[in-house]
Amino acid sequence: MARTADPHRRGELLDQIIDYLAEHGLSTLSMRPLAQHLGKSTRVLTHHFADKEELLSATMERLDERHRDWLRGLPGWSGSDSVGTIIRRTWDWQTREDNQPIARLIHEIEGLAVAGKLAGHVPRLLSDRSEFVAGLLRERGVPEPEATRISTLANSAYTGLQIDFLTTGERERVEAALDQLCALVDEWVAAC
Description:
Blueprint: H1 7-24, H2 31-38, H3 42-48, H4 52-72, H5 83-94, H6 100-114, H7 124-127, H8 129-139, H9 146-168, H10 171-191
């Protein structure tokens, strides 16, 4: 009789898989090298995940959960800090050297999704990103449809700036533009 997969162990395994993907990338994901890197057999992976597709779906969901928890845990998320201040804190946290592999993984996921290579696997991290930030804006008193409009624009600009920084390494130039984005967002919020 097959043993039931332990949900706690599955969560630990998913965190290890995310760390592996942050280091090695998603586009070349294969069960055997992944299992070998984790010091496990492919049998352990298939015990927790029926196949690579299920592993990918569960990993995307866990990455989304982790990322949202990290963002909500930043100082000022729940409080009176301006949205621009929160955007800047988010940037400072995401572009720290130790967090850059996760930022790169997220951008790789975006690229694979744009190329149609993640059909059925686009995580909420991408698809609900505007709604996530729009919720923060609504908590700060921004009504609809302005919350969604500001969130969409801020997310798109932020993503572009982050890709620019991760590609060029030109922190000073990119962060000057980020600071202008933060100021604009605060102006838009104040105008609502």
